[in-house]
Amino acid sequence: MTNVPVYDLDLRTADNTVLATTHGRGLFTGKFTADTASITAPLDENQLKVFPTQATSEIFISTKLNYNNADVTIFNLNGQQVYQQKKSLSSSRQRIDVSGLSTGLYLLKVHGNGIDQTVKFVKE
User: Fold this and answer.
1) Which ranges carry the Secretion system C-terminal sorting domain (predicted)?
2) Residue-range domain boundaries for the chain
């Protein structure tokens, strides 16, 4: 069905069938057979906290759970790593000095021991 304009698409959810209607070429059907993807455990978006999100000299990170020797990495928007250190994270806040970073948007990634999360912050 190459180069045939489709004027109407319908999805029949009862059997996951897609119906494509054309002018002069008829009705075409196709089925979705893949299983539905799902998340078994909800992601706790408050698992990693970074504050303030607009920093001048330092940021603080904390988590709801304890993570020993987690990799804390900061990337600029060019993908360059500008900071990397192993830290033990917990609900008590950990300080990171960002005074040496240029003004801009950064991504802070925490990885290891059951956590893999990225948070944005702005260096003013």
Assistant:
1) 50-121
2) 1-35, 48-123
**Local structure of 111: helix, strand or coil:** strand
Burial of 93 (0-12, 13-18, 19+ CB in 10 A): middle
The whole-angstrom separation of Cα 69 and Cα 86 is 5
The single-letter code of the amino acid at 76 is: N
**Distance (Å, whole) CA 120 – CA 113:** 21
Query: Burial of 106 by CB count in 10 Å (0-12 exposed, 13-18 middle, 19+ buried)?
Result: buried
List Cβ neighbours of 103 (8 Å cut-off, separation of 6 or more).
123, 124
pTM (two decimals)? 0.63
CATH of domain 48-123: 2.60.40.3080
DSSP 16: T
Mean pLDDT lowest among 27-36, 79-88, 89-98: 27-36
- Dig out the tokens for 86 from the structure: 């192993």
Q: Which helix (H) or strand (E) holds 95?
A: strand 94-97
d(CA 47, CA 108): 14
